[in-house]
Amino acid sequence: MARWEPGAPERLQKAALELFATRGFEQTTATEIAQSVGLTERTFFRHFSDKREVLFYGQHQFAQAFLAGVDTAPPGATPIEIVACALQSAAAFFPKERRPYSRTRQSVIDQNPALQERERHKLASLAATLADALRARGVDELAATLAAQTGVTVFGIAFTQWIREGEQRSLADIAAEVLRQLLTLTATATTSEMIP
Amino acid sequence: MARWEPGAPERLQKAALELFATRGFEQTTATEIAQSVGLTERTFFRHFSDKREVLFYGQHQFAQAFLAGVDTAPPGATPIEIVACALQSAAAFFPKERRPYSRTRQSVIDQNPALQERERHKLASLAATLADALRARGVDELAATLAAQTGVTVFGIAFTQWIREGEQRSLADIAAEVLRQLLTLTATATTSEMIP
User: Fold this and answer.
1) ipTM of the complex
2) Which residues contact B60 (CB under 8 A, 6 or more apart)?
3) Which of A115, B11, B132, B168 has the fewest CB atoms lying closer than 10 Å?
């Protein structure tokens, strides 16, 4: 039977990011990642289905943070208000201390198409999960899909801004501002005759 | 020197879709696709970088349809109005006759993770292209990104509805309705105290 390794996923994730950032994702094997923290390849694959997945450890808790935010919205909240609550909750998942880690992680992802694909997949899953949670609150099909997609779009844009060099604001503040900007943008179009 | 094959990409695409739909994507090789229309594997790879790409032939023209729509928007149009024009132009790329083809194609994509990844990549590229076109019209960075992402989200939702069995409306009509729904959704939130 396999030995239980306390904190193994976290150690592997940290080691993987360091190796990916210095040597490159393609040039680093799962075995090397495992060995760098005194673990075996077998332990690596017990925790992660492939080499890409190691950078997405914690994704489940991230999705849960969105859902926890949905639950904090009062009964009468509109779909966008629910999404606003979800964004604030998800943003709390990324405290200031995490910014350097998130920045390095994103630069590794941005340099590798396979990692970008995995990231897009995770975001698509997140949007689907969020839409399900909205539907469970009685939001109709189309509104749930639109609001959930909007939430994930706003989060993505806010996150990109949050990890920029020199950015000082919290992710929660940036997300709120991006959402506000979207509302302003759409508000100017509601009475437009150009929209059929 | 390679012989020029008139209409080879279109023939390969049509044959590929038939084979993928009947046998499955994984079970079909590029050679089989080529041979089924009397062409060689070499001809296949002259037109497509890999087996997935054959289902995305025409993607460039699709993106161009979006951009052509951006150009039809009058000088004073707001970002969302420009996106509305882009959506109408892109929708015209999918006439009624194309619906059965699009439906089969999507069911093949939905059954294969590798094809889903490629599709998400194409949509992300489309959003980036659209955002560039908005910026080129003087729309600021954040508004361009938000409006472009919104446009691609609306298109995706409308397209999913358009290929549903029994759906009779045109893609242009559905896209306009989805955009209107989004505007209604966001309009109720602009004065919300729940959005920080």
Assistant:
1) 0.86
2) none
3) B168
